[in-house]
UniProtKB/TrEMBL annotation:
Annotated organism of origin: Melanocharis versteri
Tree of life domain: Eukaryota
WD repeats: 78-120, 128-170, 171-212
Protein name: Coronin
Coiled-coil positions: 444-471
Gene it is expressed from: Coro2b
Pfam families: DUF1899 (PF08953), WD40 (PF00400), WD40_4 (PF16300)
Keywords: Actin-binding, Coiled coil, Repeat, WD repeat
Similarity section: Belongs to the WD repeat coronin family.
PROSITE patterns per the UniProt record, alphabetical: WD_REPEATS_1, WD_REPEATS_2, WD_REPEATS_REGION
Stretches assigned to the DUF1899 domain: 5-69
């Protein structure tokens, strides 16, 4: 996008990015080499979680934010999955609960102890099976506690009620792999992008597709709701294979409001939207820079602000929730950048330059807090409610009093939309199949050795019997 020279009055036109010093980074982390298009990182006000490279299964690190510097190679991991971990997300209302999904077809809920891990964690508080192929995405509902969405390579989105530990709804409108999911402000709508080159707006409780766009000229990869503006923004690729963004009206996806070409690079563009400041951040996978824009309600809608540049390419980016920012430094956004080549996680703060050290109310409006607005039963019955807002001036370090209680589950069928999801056992991962194969081969060799020994013994007895019968004494 070309820089627009006309003057615009905006309090965010001088926002700049500031990378943390080396001692405030997280060093020595074996970041996963998986090529799946995800961030492999999740962060909240207490912990940083990173998917790591591991053999014989999937694992991720959970590090307290204050524990910066070099991380020891034998640092404890969460390592209960049998396949590679593809996505992790913190519960927005309970800060020590994290969800993960994996190639082993499972979604698991983990409870991190106070102060972080002291030893490897292999037992999840809840294991969720319902997908028939690997699970690529997990997402928590933005206003309802204990409602989790998962998207698998079986082209289905399952809605889990963690109060009962079972899937309660299934969205089955996609014809290919789901690439991205995004909620609107109150969680009443779900936007998805799919490998079938379609953008969809879905009513999640019924699974009904409200709007659908066939993006032939703009092949969509990622989508994000722009807060409560009733607009969507997608990133993708144009027909000339240039990276592109498009702005859509959520109630009419027949044509995008605008399309803008970014550059000719090949890395996936990740969009991040801050509804409080109306700022959009674009970060390319494999790039070192982060572009940022301001979203307006009138044309041209997108106004370029500036670009944070860095020579180190990023594999993914974690984003700090608003209540974890440093308001005394006028920090409005914070990324955690994964630099695979260095094994480094680098915090990057987006700062509004202000001379005054007092609380800046104009850049910190009321923001969604850590209290859920709905219970799972209320949301499933059709109730929609805006998130409960909080001020970052007073009590933004307040800890949530909600505690996660894993349900006691019995083995039984899981019927969703008339389909028993557990009727067929989910296929095992390649690693698990290999381990089973080698165990069976060892067992076959053992049995063959036993048979061979018995065969030799039988022949010895037959020979002894023959010699006994032919001896002169018996004649």
């Amino acid at each position: 996008m070309s820089w627009r020279p006309q003057y615009r009055s905006s309090k965010f036109r001088n926002v700049y990015g500031k990378a943390a010093s080396r001692e405030h980074c997280f060093d020595g982390i074996p970041i996963t080499k998986n090529v799946h298009d995800n961030h492999f990182c999740a962060v909240n006000a207490r912990f940083l979680a990173i998917v790591t490279e591991s053999a014989g299964g999937g694992s991720f690190l959970v590090i307290p934010l204050e524990q910066t510097g070099r991380i020891e190679p034998n640092y404890p991991k969460v390592c209960g999955h049998q396949g590679n971990v593809l996505d992790i997300k913190w519960n927005p209302f309970i800060e020590n609960i994290i969800a993960s999904c994996s190639e082993d077809t499972s979604v698991r809920i983990w409870e991190i102890p106070e102060g972080g891990l002291k030893r490897n964690m292999t037992e999840a508080v809840l294991e969720l099976y319902g997908h028939s192929r690997r699970v690529g995405l997990v997402e928590w509902h933005p206003t309802t506690n204990n409602i989790l969405f998962s998207a698998g390579y079986d082209y289905k989105v399952l809605i889990w009620n963690l109060d009962v530990g079972e899937p309660v709804k299934m969205i089955d409108c996609h014809t290919d792999v789901i690439l991205c999911v995004s909620f609107n402000a109150d969680g009443s709508l779900l936007a998805t992008t799919c490998k079938d080159k379609k953008l969809r707006v879905v009513e999640p409780r019924s699974g009904r597709v409200l709007q659908e766009a066939s993006c032939k000229n703009h092949r969509v990869n990622r989508v994000v709701f722009l807060g409560s503006t009733k607009r969507l923004l997608t990133t993708g690729v144009s027909r000339w294979n240039t990276r592109q963004i498009a702005l859509w009206d959520q109630e009419d996806l027949s044509m995008p409001l605008i399309e803008e070409e970014i550059d000719g690079l090949s890395g996936l563009l990740f969009p991040f939207y801050d509804a409080d400041t109306h700022m959009l951040y674009l970060a390319g996978k494999g790039d070192g820079n982060i572009r940022y824009y301001e979203i307006g309600s009138e044309k041209p809608y997108l106004s370029y602000l500036m670009e944070f540049r860095s020579p180190a390419p990023q594999k993914g980016l974690g984003v700090m929730p608003k209540h974890g920012l440093d308001v005394s430094a006028c920090e409005v956004f914070r990324f955690y950048k994964l630099i695979t080549l260095k094994g480094l996680i680098e915090p990057i703060s987006m700062i509004v330059p202000r001379r005054s050290e007092t609380y800046q109310e104009d850049i910190y409006p009321m923001t969604p807090g850590t209290e859920p607005a709905l219970t799972p039963d209320e949301w499933l019955s059709g109730v929609n409610r805006d998130p409960i807002l909080m001020s970052l001036k007073e009590g933004y370090k307040r800890n949530s009093k909600i505690v996660f209680k894993a349900p006691v589950r019995e083995k039984k069928s899981v019927v969703v939309n008339g389909i028993d999801l557990l009727e067929n056992v989910p296929p095992r991962t390649e690693n698990e199949l290999l381990r089973m194969f080698f165990r069976q081969q060892d067992e076959i060799r053992r049995l063959k050795d036993e048979l061979s020994q018995k065969d030799i013994r039988i022949r010895q007895l037959q020979l002894e019997l023959k010699n006994f019968r032919n001896s002169p004494k018996n004649n």
